[in-house]
Amino acid sequence: MSHTKVIAIPVLGRHAVNAYLLLGRRPVIVDAGTPGSARKIYHQVAAHGVDPADIALIVLTHGHIDHFGSAAELHRLTGAPLAGHIADLEPYRTGRVREPYLPTGPMGRLMNRNRNLHVRAEPFEPHVLVRGETSLDDFGIAARIMPTPGHTAGSVSVITDSGDLVAGDLVANSFMGLIPGKPANPPFHDDPLGNLASLREMLALDPERLHVGHGTPLDPDRVRRWATREQRRLDRLAARGRLTTRT
Questions:
Q1: 25-51, pLDDT tens digit by residue?
Q2: DSSP SS3 for 89
Q3: Strand 17-23 to strand 5-12: parallel, antiparallel, or no bridges (unpaired)?
Q4: Greatest CA separation found in the chain?
Q5: Exposed e or buried b per residue across 23-61, where buried means at least 16 C-beta atoms within 10 angstroms of its C-beta
């Protein structure tokens, strides 16, 4: 089995917002951070001994501003093609997130007031359109892009053959990473039940660890226990007609 090394690239704070560097036969970046963070990612990649010009691909996990905000600039800096799911093509092409955001709790309601979440990023056209499970072997990584809809319609994750799941916003650390190791919802979900179904599908692949967009790596067994509790909570909300989903 070919081993792929996964390195967190903090974009905001220590781990409040992460991009990732995947090292195999060739390097791949997952996510592009907030607008204006491309050079920070570029220099952190170089600090890990990787020539940014060697980046084979930049995978975008979904169409939220803190994950694709610097995609166009990072493409110019590295020359690497951008990959994104077709269902999030509108945010990528317009530079604007689908609004309104749908908060998952108090943190989301608070963050929704942050004007930085409502800015327009530089738009771009993905060079690689993801429609289904997609091997990254041609880009030098023993891994697959997996559609994981729910957080947004076009959310994807990357699972390596060596057992690492780069999960985007399928799940997060509590309080945007301030409580390391404790699974929680990210601040927003377009379809909470759909996202939870995607999370469970990825857990069924038995990953060794989950690398998330907000916080430090999560233990899969702890995430499974959290997901069981979250399913009961969402089912209760749905039964009362209080579960908001983007249509």
A1: 999 999 999 999 999 999 999 999 999
A2: helix
A3: antiparallel
A4: 53
A5: bbebbbbbbbbbbebbebbbebbeeeebebeebbbbbbb
Please state whether the peptide bond connecting residue 100 to the residue before it is cis, i.e. omega within 30 degrees of 0: yes
Rounded to whole angstroms, the Cα distance separating 214 from 211 reads: 9
Q: What are phi and psi of 215, to 5 degrees?
A: 115, -170
Q: Is the dihedral of CA 226, 227, 231, 232 positive or negative?
A: negative
Kindly tell me the sign of the dihedral angle through the C-alpha atoms of 146, 149, 150, 151: positive
Q: Quick count: other Cβ atoms within 10 Å of Cβ 105?
A: 12
Beta bridge partners of 29: 21, 58
Euclidean distance between CA atoms 228 and 88, whole angstroms:
28
DSSP conformation class of 188? B
pLDDT tens column, 210-231: 999 999 999 999 999 999 999 9
Q: Do 44 and 76 touch, CB atoms closer than 8 A? A: no
Q: Is 242 left (phi over 0), alpha (psi -120 to 50) or beta?
A: alpha
In 3D space, the residue among 64, 157, 166 whose CA is nearest the CA of residue 111 turns out to be 64
Q: Are strands 179-184 and 143-147 parallel, antiparallel or unpaired?
A: unpaired
Q: Which residues contact 87 (CB under 8 A, 6 or more apart)?
A: 149, 152, 153, 154
Are 90 and 103 in contact by the 8 Å Cβ rule? The answer is no
Tell me whether strands 27-30 and 172-173 are parallel, antiparallel or unpaired: unpaired
Whether 126 contacts 82, CB under 8 Å: yes
115 CB-side CA count, 13 A:
0
Backbone angles phi, psi at 186, to 5 degrees: -65, 175
